[in-house]
Amino acid sequence: MTSSAWVGEGVRLRAREPEDWEKSLIFEEDSDAVRSGWRLHPPRSAAQAKKAMAEQAEEQLDLDEFSLVIATKAENELVGFINTHEIERVHGTFAYGISVGTPHHHKGYASEAIVLLLRYMFFERRFQKAEAWVYSYNEASLAMHRRLGFVEEGRRRRSHYANGRYHDEILFGMTTEEYAERYA
Prior knowledge:
This is GNAT family N-acetyltransferase. By secondary structure, the chain is an alpha+beta fold. It is built from six helices and seven strands. α1 (about 20-30) packs across α3. The two termini are about 20 Å apart.
């Protein structure tokens, strides 16, 4: 049996498919989960969500900057999204964002997705450091990043506005050596 770098014990990272639009639209209606991932947007129609997902499914993915679905390994059910951004090839650094729907919290999906993504970026794409910004009100994500071995590197005070309040953003980082020591 062959193995995939994109499949872990409980999750698989995969490209978006046109039929993912319904789950994605339901996910977008979970305001707390959306705020924890980035920012709340006005509601989209089913037609807009369907069109956007179909277009995203057709896009050619860049080797370094991309967005993937986090799906359960067994049922291939969409539970969230993970993406890379802030790609700095000269310095060998990148950032990522992750968002998992509330019904799927505390099941290990986010942690496993991050470990899979970092393995690809460090060992296939030769990046040397990953960064993640976490909002100060997202206690679960703060705890998860610490548990995964990320180092808190800084704080941007009152730089994120959500739900009527200003919040800090905490920067976490992990080097390829730190990853290898823990996960290789």
